[in-house]
Amino acid sequence: MASMKLIVPLLRRYISIAISLFQSLVLCLFDNFDYPILINLADAFLSLYFITFCDLRPITVDLNDGETTVHFWVSGHRRNNRPDLVMLHGYGGNSKWQFIHQVSDLSKSFNLFIPDLVFFGKSHSRNTERTVEFQARNVVGGLKRLGCSEGGLAVYSISYGGFVAYRIAKMWPEMIERLVIVSSGVGFTQQQKMTEMKKHGGDVSEILVPRSPRDLRMLVRISMNTGIAFIDWVPDFILSQFIAVMYETNRKELVELAKNLLEREEDAEFYAISQKTLIIWGDKDEVFPLEHGRRLHRHLPNSSIEILKDIGHGVNIEAPTTLNNLITSFVLDVS
């Protein structure tokens, strides 16, 4: 009898997954010819991977009377003997695509909370604000709705997510105990940000929010130092489908987020956070060069820095195992 109680919910879960995949396949085949079938199917199978192998569940949280919706992936079984870890992504797709190489390992040591930042993935809003503070408020609002209001959280953030994480640590210091910042231009002046990004030519927002396969290939080459040869072999139609799925629905809003980030001037008190912080940087980062990681380290007395040799901006893609080990050791305080 007890075994039946365990089997029935499991069967319901897998039947639900099968129905969702079948619905996606039907839509792909019959909705219209231009439907980005390959990327949507890949996205559906990523969801299956998160659910089946990482014990993660999709949860949607409505904030401010439904004005903003934040989509999360959260651990299906939250264990009291594991710390809570929030994972904040950067530009380059939704949270599933950015953390695919990390969630399986990290889910074994932590209760995970992985939001799609607003206008990425399934998170959206009718609000016209495009600031980092706006993202921070929505992440915190969602976390509180999910029961993370007592503090003691660890936050791992990369690139754009680092700006959001840092703002959370400053505005809600009681919630955050430890902070991991990876390849993020936190503390940049407006001029520094523009100088670095203009090295790559063209409109910076067009690089971060690509329109064409050529733009997407450029973004990959800028973001990675190793393992980039594959991008030249991916057919244009697949890259076009990826762009359609990841960027087209909220293109305007994503560009506005990028412009706000690049044009804002950080305040002089931005460095004043007390949380223990681990800074991780690739020494071949061409988006935010290593000197800026060292500068951030100097301004944070309670910080340490790890430099990864021959790694570019996309540490989560180029060195996920090393990154996971550093995060786990730091958060669990294992020397």
UniProtKB/TrEMBL annotation:
<protein>
    <recommendedName>
        <fullName>AB hydrolase-1 domain-containing protein</fullName>
    </recommendedName>
</protein>
<feature type="domain" description="AB hydrolase-1">
    <location>
        <begin position="85"/>
        <end position="320"/>
    </location>
</feature>
<dbReference type="InterPro" id="IPR052370">
    <property type="entry name" value="Meta-cleavage_hydrolase"/>
</dbReference>
<dbReference type="InterPro" id="IPR000073">
    <property type="entry name" value="AB_hydrolase_1"/>
</dbReference>
<dbReference type="InterPro" id="IPR029058">
    <property type="entry name" value="AB_hydrolase_fold"/>
</dbReference>
<dbReference type="Pfam" id="PF00561">
    <property type="entry name" value="Abhydrolase_1"/>
</dbReference>
